[in-house]
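FAQ: What does the model actually see?

It sees only this:
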Amino acid sequence: MNELEPQQDIAPPRRRRLPIWPFVLASAMLLVGAFVFAAVAIPISMPYYAMSPGPVSDVSDYIEVENPSDTTEGELFFLTVSLQEVNVLEWVGAQLDSRVDLAPRENIRPAGVTQEQLREQNLALMNRSKDNAKFVALTYLGYEVTYIGSGAEITATIEESAAEGVLQEGDIIKFVDGEEVEFSSDAVDLIGGRAPGDALVLTIERASEDGELEVIDVPLVLGPYRFIDEDGNVLDDPDRGMAGVMLRDAPVEIKFPVPVDIDSQNIGGPSAGMMFTLEIINALTEEDITQGRRIAGTGTINADGEVGSIGGMRQKTFGAIDVGAEYLLVPAGNYDEAVDAAGDDIEVVRVETIQDAMTFLASLAAA
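And it is asked to produce this:
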């Protein structure tokens, strides 16, 4: 009789456990994808503008003069900044890009001012800048120019300001407390620097209901500087008076002895003024003021030839570097910011007047 063999325990086959990490990774990717989809499909507006380097242009492409000199071998460039209101995704992208800055919306477009009004204001500033450039360049070269302003036109009133309900779009300020206003800058100078509660009288030209123009005196008591953004946040300065109007020059009569045309296309703002001025001088001068160099620059220009500060200096510096400019002419008020952004990639030159710019260019050795 055979002995029975010991019974062996036979365990059931073990199930293979799948790793967890692929599911975790897939879930994370789904969440990120859902966030990106929501940010694109449902763009939630953020109260910021993204400022990034804009197009860089050869100034000679925008200016035509009668009988220009043909000795120019170098190049003059003007710089721009691209401004864009951002959604959540674009806000995140701006945080990750060292060349982009975020500016609070109210710093660019005050509450109560539409995007179209802002665009019109910037185009008006560009038109004034072009006229100033022609005036400064031609008078620098010894020509006589007749330049006659007709007042400051109100393009919008700010909500909850002293002007609301008292002044209106289309009014033209002719006098402030009896002092003549030729240009919008005159009105800003005459009204600015006052305190809340200060009273003044504006003499304005206004179209009546039948379309006839009438001149009337409008008393105005300045309120405190105050804006309310779209989220209801109050930005104020209780020690600074504010009328609460946006202005542009009323039609200006200018008689130039030399035909000069500046086609700025759809570019707005006053910051190309200095470079327009230099290009006009260069076009009407036998010598090449650039000495054959690639010169970039930015800055406003007033009728006295003074170069004023601008916004977006970091982005404009990056634009000058990208185009391969050797020198960057900047207003005194923007010099430190430009130097910080430039590093060792471009030489930054501080200018306060158009004469400063011309003196520097004359000091350059020919390329």
